[in-house]
């Protein structure tokens, strides 16, 4: 899982090309559950769901549409510290393959609350060894830590596993146009020519698509009072500083009312949709054709 989660989509397509089945192993729940007291296991479960969901979205963009999500086992978790009475002993540890929730040995564990099954019955052969399993939530007393998070036993929580069959729409992935925002502080227009800085907020990617914006100024009654600026939002730089751009606006030489509202607006040309409206005050001295300020 960790090897492919940061791969580029093109590399993922190459990796999966011609493959019938690919197994991706996500081990965060087990890894963090067996560490110390296993207190992070539920956080790991939430993170696992989010990470697997994100992985499916990425793999869908790499032309994969069928996923089966499952687990190799469940687990038991006890928040409180285990008492000695919760630990089962009385078996020869030197001649047994033992875990917290199972013991495989030549003889069954002779203790209360322990069930047994012949290994040969499970494997369909003549193996005469016996599997001993706690019927309740107790554990076998073996060396090592990790008593709170255990698995390998016969409880429903340990042996029932989810199998989720997911089919996604081929080549489909939720996308959106990259957006822009005004960087310059803009409250008042005092010159007929004004330069303003903007930023393309996201880099163009598989999810964030390029688009084209038209920017200009209007009055409150929708009269256009400046030139049009066209910005093609196609920058792919991850460095936000490289996605800053400057536009020059030239205003009509006319009388403006300081008490009325004027706006900088931006339209997504592909969607014919207004995406930005910023209110400004027009504080310009009107110059007539004879050069007099009025």
End-to-end CA span: 71 Å
Calculate Rg over CA atoms.
33 Å
User: How many separate domains?
Assistant: 3
β-strand amount: 25-35%
CATH class membership of the largest domain: Mainly Beta
Overall outline: elongated
Any low-confidence stretches, pLDDT <50, length ≥5? 290-294
Structural class from helices and strands? Answer: alpha+beta
CATH architecture of the largest domain: Sandwich
Number of E-type strands: 20
Features:
about 290 residues, 4-stranded antiparallel sheet, 20 strands
Topology, element by element:
Layout: H1 9-16, H2 28-33, H3 41-61, E1 66-70, E2 76-77, E3 87-88, E4 96-99, E5 102-105, E6 114-118, H4 119-123, E7 130-134, E8 139-140, E9 149-150, H5 156-159, E10 163-167, E11 176-177, E12 180-182, E13 188-189, E14 193-200, E15 208-209, E16 211-219, E17 229-233, E18 244-250, E19 262-268, E20 273-282
Parallel strand pairs: 3-8, 11-15, 13-20
Antiparallel strand pairs: 1-10, 2-9, 4-5, 5-7, 6-7, 12-14, 14-18, 16-17, 16-19, 19-20
Characterization of this structure:
This protein is α+β, with helices and mostly antiparallel strands. The protein has 3 domains: 9-76 and 161-167, no CATH class; 80-144, no CATH class; 176-282, Immunoglobulin-like. 15% of the residues lie in helices and 31% in strands. The chain has 5 helices and 20 strands. The strands form 7 sheets. A 5-stranded mixed β-sheet has the order 13-20-19-16-17, with no helix packed on it. Strands 4-5-7-6 form a 4-stranded antiparallel β-sheet. A 3-stranded antiparallel β-sheet has the order 12-14-18, with no helix packed on it. Strand 4 and strand 5 form a beta hairpin. The longest helix has 21 residues, at 41-61. The model is unreliable at 290-294 (pLDDT under 50).
């Amino acid at each position: 899982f960790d090897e492919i989660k940061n791969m580029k989509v093109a590399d993922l397509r190459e990796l999966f090309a011609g493959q019938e089945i690919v197994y991706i192993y996500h081990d965060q729940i087990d890894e963090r559950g067996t560490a110390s007291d296993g207190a992070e296991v539920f956080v790991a479960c939430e993170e696992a769901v989010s990470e697997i969901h994100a992985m499916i979205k990425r793999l869908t963009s790499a032309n994969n549409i069928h996923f089966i999500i499952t687990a190799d086992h469940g687990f038991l978790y006890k928040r409180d510290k285990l008492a000695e009475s919760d630990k089962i002993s009385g078996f020869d540890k030197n001649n047994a393959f033992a875990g917290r929730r199972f013991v495989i040995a030549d003889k069954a564990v002779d203790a209360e609350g322990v069930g047994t099954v012949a290994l040969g019955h499970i494997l369909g052969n003549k193996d005469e060894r016996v599997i001993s399993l706690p019927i309740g939530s107790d554990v076998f007393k073996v060396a090592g830590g990790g008593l709170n998070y255990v698995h390998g036993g016969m409880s429903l929580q340990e042996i029932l596993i989810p199998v989720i069959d997911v089919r996604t729409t081929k080549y489909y992935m939720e996308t959106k146009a990259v957006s822009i925002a005004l960087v310059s502080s803009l409250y008042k227009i005092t010159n007929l020519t004004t330069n303003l800085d903007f930023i393309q907020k996201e880099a163009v990617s598989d999810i964030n698509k390029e688009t084209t914006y038209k920017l200009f100024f209007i009055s409150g009654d929708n009269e256009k009072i400046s030139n049009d600026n066209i910005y093609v939002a196609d920058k792919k730089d991850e460095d936000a500083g490289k996605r800053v751009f400057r536009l020059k606006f030239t205003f009509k030489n006319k009388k403006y009312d300081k008490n009325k509202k004027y706006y900088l607006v931006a339209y997504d040309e592909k969607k014919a949709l207004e995406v930005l409206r910023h209110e400004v005050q027009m504080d310009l001295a009107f110059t007539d054709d004879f050069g007099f300020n009025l």
